[in-house]
Design goal:
169 residues; alpha+beta; Arc Repressor Mutant, subunit A; Glutaredoxin; 2 domains; 7 helices; 4 strands; 47% helix; binds FE2/S2 (inorganic) cluster
Length: 169
């Protein structure tokens, strides 16, 4: 197997598994998949999923089932910035469809696609539990709330500036 966690990440996996009774290591699957995703530029290749399966002593199919079910886990390459726009009822009533269309138009991508420069991925997801701040989206670990077209413009610009800063360093 050619992929593997660093020593530090393996310790983190052990620590996560230790939260559960013996034989229930599968319960640590989601946080371990998050770690794997971090190691692999934001997505889970079959190689990484198989590695996680071997670490947690579960079958690969058990890992695939979880990885393909949850929208926060990506099973194909994603851009540096992933816009996860909520499309559930309360966000829809507050204009999420317009926000999604605006992002599609602005970045020339449809939900599930990544811009050619590998910078942005657009995803539509179900309720993220921030309905009072609708319309909203998740960007990495941050919620962007009360979205407007102007806010979307500012978010895209900020992402581009940040990417540029990282490239220059
Ligand atoms: S409906 Fe969008 S956060 Fe709940």
């Amino acid at each position: 197997m050619s992929v593997q966690f660093s020593e530090q990440k393996l310790n983190r996996v052990k620590e996560l598994v230790s939260h559960y009774p013996d034989g229930k290591q599968k319960s640590a699957l989601i946080p371990v998949l998050h770690l794997a995703q971090e190691e692999n530029e934001g997505w889970l290749s079959v190689e990484w999923m198989d590695y996680v399966a071997s670490l947690l002593q579960v079958t690969p199919i058990e890992v695939y089932e979880v990885a393909t079910f949850y929208t926060m886990l990506n099973t194909k390459p994603v851009g540096k910035y992933v816009f996860e726009v909520c499309q559930t009822g309360p966000c829809m009533i507050k204009g999420s469809s317009d926000i999604i269309s605006y992002i599609e138009e602005k970045l020339s991508i449809k939900p599930g696609e990544t811009t050619k420069d590998g910078m942005f991925t657009l995803k539509t997801v179900e309720c993220l539990g921030a309905c009072g701040y609708a319309p909203m989206m998740q960007l990495g670990k941050v919620y962007k709330e009360h979205l407007t077209k102007e806010k979307v413009d500012a978010i895209i610009e900020e992402c581009r500036r940040e990417a540029q800063r990282i490239m220059n360093n």
